Amino acid sequence: MxxxxxxxxxxxxxxxxxxVRRAQIYARVHTALKxxxxxxxxxxxxxxxxxxxxxPHSTDSxxxxxxxxxxLLKVVEYAPELRPEVLALITDRLVKIDVQVQIDMDDLEDxxxxxxxxxxxHGGERGSIRDSEDDEELEDDESDASSxxxxxxxxxxxxxxxxxKSNVEKMDCLLDLMFDYYTPFFVNQATDxxxxxxxxxxxxSTTILPTYRSRHTQFxxxxxxxxxxxxxDWFTGVCIAQAFDPARPLVFKQIAAAYVGSFxxxxxxxxxxxxxxxxxxxxxxxxxxxxxxxxxCKGPDVRRFGDFYAxxxxxxxxxxxxxxxxxxxxxxxxxxxxLGYSDIGETTWVPGIKETLHRTIYSKFNPLKVCSPLIxxxxxxxxxxxxxxxxxxxxxxNKRLRLSxxxxxxxxxxxxxxxxxxxxxxxxxxxxxxxxxxxxxxPYKLPRSKRWIDGEYVDWKGIPGLDEVDxxxxxxxxxxxxSGEDDVEVEETETEEEE
Length: 499
Prior knowledge:
This protein is mainly α. The chain contains 21 helices and no strands.
């Protein structure tokens, strides 16, 4: 079986060859692998770990990664039995790069982040990474040019930014490649995409969802779930089931709830009926949770009831984005953009919406004290403006409530957040006992692969009659809301004025 190692590893050592010559060598490698697999069918079990071990190191170049992934996808064409393992391998490596990028990004100043985002990929407007041989030659030239600058000539900060930029470009290209790979399976009329989406769901459950800091990889699910209404139902159903599964670890249930809220809020192909149904199901589970667990609740406690708060926050988040679909007279989602304050007051809501939120908000769990202040304040302003529910008195009384008096006195791995340092643990006072504003489908920033999300994504819109700002101010507000940044003093001032 040593031949497998020689053949597979040779594909990653040809980056200095011209593109045409490299393509010829790759073709010969695949011919050899295909012949060996036909000769020894059971040998695919030996090939799989070799393919995994030969995957480029995270510090290797973008070209090394894209070449290797393209060749992996070529392998599964003549070795379909390896397809689940190969696709899971690619997803696993993508998530690792994604996480590393987010960790590195957290340490950067905002202006540096913007500069980096504006220059992530030289060919961001060129489309697919398979476009032409000229594209490959350009990337080779860029690689040659960058190699002239030795690492020793850069100071520590410059070297770190260079590595971060390389990882962002790498992730962007790999995601673009995977979007391109999966697309034919969902647009082909001969198949319904169920087998391929099932593979994606397996990768989601085993790799993406348990990884807290994944930022872009999950958009593969976001895109292909919106291929049809039944795939949307399938994906949201899986997330809801995991969010309320008593057998799952608490932190996984919290993240699953965040996926529910973020997907429903952001997926443009979610119909009015779908939004209402998800809202109803999540709300019914919260009411049932209150009935069952409220006798054991002595006050707000994110460590013990984190799954409840995550689901409640998801519901508030959905309301902030999709309140139009929750109006019973909202035949056209855009018609409310021009409504005035008095017109909105005449609106009738879907039956059960008010009762569900009232039961949840005014339960002993007191979610408005634990959920992210950013989400709570936005919901309070919107709900008050729409004459839906008035929660400002509760918010004011919560300011006098100390979470340390009602939260679990000792850290328990079952009821606490993941054991890692985050912005949440760095907060002052009792804010570390609040729920983090984590939503996995925040705006997609990668320039090359972003084209796959165009037209499928719901951006934050100002509240008609309340957020009367010009486009520039609206964009600023949207960026602050979506990034989870909030000026508490400003929000408190607005609250007092409205009261």
